[in-house]
Amino acid sequence: MLIYLRVLKESFFFAINALVNNKLRTILSLLGVTIGIFSIIAVLAAVDSLEREIKGSLSSLDNSTMIIMRFSFGPTEIPQWKREQFPDVSYEEYEYLSRTMPDLEAASFSLNVPSESITYEGRSASNVGIGAVSHEYYNIEALQLEEGRFYNEAEDVSGAPVLVLGHDVAENLFEGSDPLGKRVRLYGRKFTVIGVLEKQGGSMFGGSHDTNVFLPVNVVRRIYGSNNRSSFPQIIIKPEDDVDNAEFMAILTQQLRNFRGLRPDDVNNFFVNQLQGFADFIDNITGQMNLIGLVISGFSLLVGGFGIANIMFVSVKERTNLIGIQKSLGAKNKFILFQFLFEAIILAVIGGLIGLFLVWVIAQLASQFTGDFDFVLSPWNMFIGTAVSAVIGLISGIVPAISASKLDPVEAIRTGM
Predict the structure, then answer these.
(1) Which of 9, 173, 197, 229 maximizes the CB count within 10 A of its CB?
(2) Transmembrane segments in this chain: where (predicted)?
(3) Burial of 56 by CB count in 10 Å (0-12 exposed, 13-18 middle, 19+ buried)?
């Protein structure tokens, strides 16, 4: 065992010495692997960061949550012309499902409407997201309040002029003073501030409520009317824990079909979108993006591998005389084999580490310039980069190393002379 360790050690130092003595060739060989590893890890890091950002935007909602609307989260077999004829879900359907659905933890009616500006005594906050939701939404998303309270059922049903501010909106309007009880102007009307949400932090996909306000959905319904296609409603359903989601969705679908009077042979004119299904759809898309990126990047890495193999053949040719002398002095084939194999692997790993470093630098710079979006180089991706580099070095160096180890010492010395 000690003999093998000694052979490995001496082979390793011979490889290091060969790389140091041929700096230009080493640098040129590194470039191919560096570019290949950089391409692969950059793709993996970008897709992982994108997936993390999207799922982080949805993390406040339970994956079992279902959203009923006339749009589908994912691909569907129903043609577009038919989907465009689907009616919006109604407030009456929300009330019906709230009364009749078994195993229902909470249901909320929501209107998606354009952003607005809010003013208070000469100060204003623009591009504010409007969360027009019924009072149950507070429990569905588990919103966290910094101060004050969320509106209750009575205020929701009556459409009371009250609202809850996101953290950044409150800071812009009140600049540190107490906003509770103050009256702000929105939609040309006065609303009383009854609560402020805790700060969540930014998200490029709209998952943060810092720049939003929440107000009773019935207020917005009166402003926009029931048939305004610029806003579309949705019903958010959260089943109780430990409920069979597939069975719950089947009952939910049948209940809504019954309410709409659909015949057995009629297709559903609505979509029940489950967040788990959306998460699976995101996984599928990111998986395809990873695959495409890896295939494209693999060509760069292949070129790098060929570059290392070429350099190793040249190195064997240059050191034929030295190999003959080593073997004539008693060096075993294993020693020669490991010497060149280590040289190829070290070359590839160093190139991979440089590629990883470049990805890390660019990720840090990109995170600074994109603000809310964070590019993350995970330890797993770093491990993949290092492992792939070592494998490329092993594959690229195995044939030259074997050819070097099998050289006849007499012929090798004669060739070198």
Answers:
(1) 197
(2) 27-47, 291-314, 335-362, 382-404
(3) middle
